[in-house]
Specification:
heterodimer; A: mainly beta; four-stranded antiparallel β-sheet; globular; B: mainly beta; 9 strands
Chain lengths: 118, 110
């Protein structure tokens, strides 16, 4: 079955770089139309789409955050990595990775809460 | 990419129907038939309940239905049940391989 799991630090300091890893199983990122997305949710607030990497290794980013985001994939390890540079307390959120199939996010990880604080 | 507009809350009695609207622009909701809806319980990951405006994934009850007119998509929950009380988010393709979510709606079962 399809599973995704996010991992990374629970606490980062302002101005540091946050690196999150999504480890998945049950599907291949070599399959046409497949992608892995990063989506975040600040406490008590709405979901926000951040970035995606697709089966052709094309990368796409949120317009408002694109200068701070980098997404990459390691197909051999079934992993997708998101980096967020120069973090700020407003980046405090639960970060989810989700499989994209077409334009739907059909499987999600459980999420990882990242707090930005000094 | 501005967040799609949803009502903050809707409510209904068990057995009734409720409809949640999701309003965007011609650059997202109005431009594509790629609207999806997610159900999220507190502390849990979102769950896909509708995609491509009105398609249901396997296992999602047919009480959940979707539609779209112009720049507004809608989710209707018919025969409201107590377990439907939670948060719902719409999401639309916004061009250039990007997506935008709605602000979320809390459904209360009276």
């Amino acid at each position: 079955q399809v599973t995704l799991r996010e991992s990374g630090p629970a606490l980062v300091k302002p101005t540091q770089t946050l690196t999150l890893t999504c480890t998945f199983s049950g599907f291949s990122l070599n399959t046409p139309a497949m992608c892995v997305n990063w989506i975040r949710q600040p406490p008590g607030k709405a979901l926000e789409w951040l970035a995606r990497v697709d089966w052709e290794d094309d990368k796409f980013y949120s317009t408002s955050l694109k200068t701070r985001l980098t997404v990459s994939k390691d197909t051999s390890k079934n992993q997708v990595v998101l980096t967020v540079t120069n973090v700020d307390p407003v980046d405090t959120a639960t970060y989810y990775c989700a499989r994209g199939s077409g334009e739907r996010y059909d499987y999600w990880g459980q999420g990882t809460l990242v707090t930005v604080s000094s | 990419q501005s967040a799609l507009t949803q009502p903050r809350s809707v409510s209904g009695s068990p057995g009734q129907s409720v409809t949640i609207s999701c309003t965007g622009t011609s650059s997202d909701v109005g431009g594509y038939n790629s609207v999806s809806w997610y159900q999220q319980y507190p502390g849990k990951a979102p769950k896909l309940i509708l995609y491509d405006v009105n398609k249901r994934p396997s296992g999602v009850p047919d009480r959940f239905s979707g539609s779209k007119s112009g720049n507004t998509a809608s989710l209707t929950i018919s025969g409201l049940q107590p377990e439907d009380e939670t948060d719902y988010y719409c999401c639309s393709y916004a061009g250039s391989h990007t997506s935008v979510f709605g602000i979320g709606t809390k459904v209360t079962v009276l």
